[in-house]
């Protein structure tokens, strides 16, 4: 640990400007940051036009997906200075009480150079609900950060961007309106993203004829951008150690395996078998969502990890739902059950994994609320307060029974539906393994047995677009 203030923190960090074109596979996040760039380019004009902006943007996602890179790219695109506060290491010193002061000085420095970006890496180090170390000093630092954020006007031209791998552990005060009120997900790249990231980091590397970024990308599901960059570097080092004339596929395979074995690596890597199992699970959710009357429309399904989940099926409400009908609640339970039911149909009940526990929790919670609060059971429209001690044991049992009935009902409906559509489930799961992410249109085609473009063609097209863009 170094003593004394580090002057460099209060000066914009230097280095070659990063642009959006340096960050790959996170198009949605880039899209969401466009207005921040427009604002920083000309804060007054933006405000005059009535644009509304967050003061703070929170980038969330697994390690190494490019959160820091994205924040730098926002600064680079807008041509504004970038002030960095390293949550992990800088806050280490904060328990000796300099934290609050450092935050104050950093904001003062940034405001002098506005428009500017302040980037706080590992926000959870200071803004976590249960920051380990010295609670009191951490609290002071956090409070100072809140004071600074509350203290400036949107028109001032300072935007705070923070990154965290653990959004759920943040102090709620941080995500209130007027603070970090825009949250942008920066997920692991899918196979197309991985091709682009590899292409980017392969620039300037002399590779052998046997090296095909498409194949490398397909061999690295679950790798982050940082992992991929690391793989390229390690392969190059290995090649030079062996005095090879170029970096060939053997070197890449060696590097890949080394990263996979890396002690510090949380095993994100998914082998083909596990990927197919996840694909069936998510495919089950997706088909039930697609075919169940009253279910929220299917939006996207993926079998690569998102946050703590192995895969994800996302649905989009058609409009703001103020009240929800019985049919819609039942559909919600059915969709939750679809994942586990699909696993059971394909792999047999004895091989079902515990991976569906959050689905089960969600379905159970919905069923409980249906019975206890919304009167959707034979117990009728009676409100049962969770804190009410006077609910009789008999009533508790009846509630349990009704909840179980609802969840079991969902399970049975999902099973009937997926049994009838088993061929579609196979088609969908295998397409997911290839493409990793499918949108609604693609899902509809796949289950009809219609070709969506061959993944190799898609990847090839991506590569030639990239090449012509950089030529
Ligand atoms: N999406 C990406 N496109 C291109 N390169 C990437 C991408 N993601 C990561 N990298 C490479 O990995 C390096 C590390 O990524 P970065 O520090 O931005 O990740 P991070 O999400 O901030 O990680 P952490 O959460 O560990 O701080 C980058 O400098 C870049 O070289
Ligand atoms: Zn699930």
From TrEMBL:
<comment type="similarity">
    <text>Belongs to the AAA ATPase family.</text>
</comment>
<keyword id="KW-0496">Mitochondrion</keyword>
<keyword id="KW-0547">Nucleotide-binding</keyword>
<dbReference type="InterPro" id="IPR003959">
    <property type="entry name" value="ATPase_AAA_core"/>
</dbReference>
<dbReference type="GO" id="GO:0004222">
    <property type="term" value="F:metalloendopeptidase activity"/>
</dbReference>
<dbReference type="InterPro" id="IPR037219">
    <property type="entry name" value="Peptidase_M41-like"/>
</dbReference>
<dbReference type="InterPro" id="IPR041569">
    <property type="entry name" value="AAA_lid_3"/>
</dbReference>
<keyword id="KW-0479">Metal-binding</keyword>
<dbReference type="GO" id="GO:0016887">
    <property type="term" value="F:ATP hydrolysis activity"/>
</dbReference>
<feature type="domain" description="AAA+ ATPase">
    <location>
        <begin position="53"/>
        <end position="190"/>
    </location>
</feature>
<dbReference type="Pfam" id="PF17862">
    <property type="entry name" value="AAA_lid_3"/>
</dbReference>
<protein>
    <submittedName>
        <fullName>Peptidase family M41-domain-containing protein</fullName>
    </submittedName>
</protein>
<dbReference type="Pfam" id="PF01434">
    <property type="entry name" value="Peptidase_M41"/>
</dbReference>
<keyword id="KW-0067">ATP-binding</keyword>
<keyword id="KW-0862">Zinc</keyword>
<dbReference type="InterPro" id="IPR003593">
    <property type="entry name" value="AAA+_ATPase"/>
</dbReference>
<keyword id="KW-0482">Metalloprotease</keyword>
<dbReference type="InterPro" id="IPR000642">
    <property type="entry name" value="Peptidase_M41"/>
</dbReference>
<keyword id="KW-0645">Protease</keyword>
<dbReference type="GO" id="GO:0046872">
    <property type="term" value="F:metal ion binding"/>
</dbReference>
<dbReference type="GO" id="GO:0141164">
    <property type="term" value="P:mitochondrial protein quality control"/>
</dbReference>
<dbReference type="GO" id="GO:0005524">
    <property type="term" value="F:ATP binding"/>
</dbReference>
<dbReference type="GO" id="GO:0007005">
    <property type="term" value="P:mitochondrion organization"/>
</dbReference>
<dbReference type="InterPro" id="IPR027417">
    <property type="entry name" value="P-loop_NTPase"/>
</dbReference>
<dbReference type="InterPro" id="IPR003960">
    <property type="entry name" value="ATPase_AAA_CS"/>
</dbReference>
<keyword id="KW-0378">Hydrolase</keyword>
<comment type="similarity">
    <text>In the C-terminal section; belongs to the peptidase M41 family.</text>
</comment>
<dbReference type="GO" id="GO:0005743">
    <property type="term" value="C:mitochondrial inner membrane"/>
</dbReference>
<dbReference type="Pfam" id="PF00004">
    <property type="entry name" value="AAA"/>
</dbReference>
<dbReference type="GO" id="GO:0004176">
    <property type="term" value="F:ATP-dependent peptidase activity"/>
</dbReference>
């Amino acid at each position: 640990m170094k003593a004394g203030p580090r002057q460099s923190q209060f000066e914009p960090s230097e280095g070659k400007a990063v642009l959006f074109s340096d960050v790959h596979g996170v198009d949605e996040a880039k899209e969401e940051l466009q207005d921040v760039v427009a604002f920083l380019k000309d804060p007054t004009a933006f405000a005059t036009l009535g644009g509304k902006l967050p003061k703070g943007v929170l980038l969330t996602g697994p390690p190494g997906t490019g959160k820091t890179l994205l924040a730098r790219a926002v600064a680079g695109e807008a041509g504004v200075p970038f002030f960095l506060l390293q949550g992990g290491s800088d806050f280490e010193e904060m328990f000796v009480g300099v934290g609050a002061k450092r935050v104050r000085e950093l904001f003062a420095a940034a405001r002098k150079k506005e428009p500017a970006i302040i980037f706080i890496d590992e926000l959870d180090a200071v803004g976590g609900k249960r920051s380990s170390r010295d609670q009191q000093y951490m609290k002071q630092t956090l409070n100072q950060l809140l004071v600074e954020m509350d203290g400036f006007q949107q028109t001032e031209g300072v935007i705070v961007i923070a990154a965290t791998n653990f959004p759920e552990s943040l102090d709620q005060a941080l995500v209130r309106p007027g603070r970090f009120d825009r949250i942008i997900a920066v997920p692991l790249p899918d196979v197309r993203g991985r091709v682009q990231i590899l292409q980017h980091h392969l620039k300037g590397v002399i590779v052998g004829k046997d090296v095909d970024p498409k194949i490398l990308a397909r061999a690295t599901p679950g790798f982050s951008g940082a992992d991929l960059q690391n793989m390229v570097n390690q392969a190059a080092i290995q090649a030079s150690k062996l005095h090879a004339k170029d970096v060939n596929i053997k070197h890449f395979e060696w590097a890949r395996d080394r990263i996979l074995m890396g002690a510090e690596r949380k095993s994100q890597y998914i082998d083909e078998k596990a990927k197919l199992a996840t694909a069936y699970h998510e495919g089950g959710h997706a088909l039930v969502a697609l075919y169940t009357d009253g279910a929220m429309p299917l939006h996207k399904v993926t079998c690569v990890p998102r946050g703590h989940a192995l895969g994800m099926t996302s649905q989009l409400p058609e409009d703001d739902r103020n009240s929800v009908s019985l049919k819609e609640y039942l559909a919600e339970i059915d969709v939750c059950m679809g994942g586990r039911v699909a696993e059971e149909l394909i792999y047999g009940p004895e091989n079902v994994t515990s991976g569906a526990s959050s689905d089960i929790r969600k379905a159970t919670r919905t069923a409980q609320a249906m019975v206890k609060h919304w009167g959707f059971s034979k117990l009728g429209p009676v409100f049962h307060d969770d804190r009410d001690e006077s609910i009789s044991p008999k009533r508790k049992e009846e509630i349990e029974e009704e909840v179980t009935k609802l969840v079991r009902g969902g399970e049975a409906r999902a099973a009937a539906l997926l049994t009838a559509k088993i061929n579609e489930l196979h088609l969908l799961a295998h397409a997911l393994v290839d493409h990793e992410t499918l949108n609604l249109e693609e899902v509809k085609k796949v289950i009809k047995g219609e070709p969506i473009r061959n993944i190799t063609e898609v990847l090839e097209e991506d590569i030639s677009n990239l090449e012509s863009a950089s030529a």
